[in-house]
Amino acid sequence: MDTFDLRFKKPNAGDFISPKALHSVEHMLATALRNGKCKDSVLYFGPMGCRTGFYLLTTGLTCEEVFSALKTALVAALAMDEVPGSARVECGNYLEHDLADAKRECTAYLTLLASLSEEEISAEEKKRREAHAHG
Ligand SMILES: [Zn+2]
């Protein structure tokens, strides 16, 4: 199993994801990942309590596959015209959502992912394999 810390925000830099956007991105990306082609390899997706990002737990995926699945999920989230599962009967805090702000966060993170080179991604994969080999 692999845990990915998806940092949307620089830690302790004074800029955090709003509680509404954090909650909406959780619904949107969890739904998009569940509907994506790697759905059987995604174990968990959820928000960090510090509101700087999200945790993604996967099994059997390379970093390249995770990056690709994330990009696809972010594009799918940006195409949503409502937050999935945000009806009162489906969500424990259905008023705490903000689709527009969630999309701003997704756009910023997509831009960040797109700025990573293939070399950087394969360096991550090398680190992941080494971590598995040693432990
Ligand atoms: Zn909810």
The set of bound ligands, ions and cofactors reads: zinc ion
Largest sheet: 3 strands, antiparallel
The span between the termini is 12 Å
CATH class: Alpha Beta
The level of helicity is: 40-55%
Give the total of beta strands. Answer: 3
Strand content: 5-15%
Low-confidence stretches: none
Arrangement of strands in the largest sheet: 1-3-2
Proper CATH architecture: 2-Layer Sandwich
Multimerization state:
single chain
- Could you say what the CATH topology is called? Gyrase A, domain 2
Number of helices: 4
How would you describe this protein?
The protein has 135 residues and is of the alpha+beta class. It has one domain (2-130): Gyrase A, domain 2. 49% of the residues lie in helices and 13% in strands. It is built from 4 helices and 3 strands; from the N terminus they run E-H-E-E-H-H-H. It has a 3-stranded antiparallel sheet with strand order 1-3-2, covered by helices on one side. It is globular. Bound molecules: zinc ion (ZN). The site of zinc ion (ZN) has 5 residues, from helix 1. Residues 23, 27, 91-93 line the site of zinc ion.
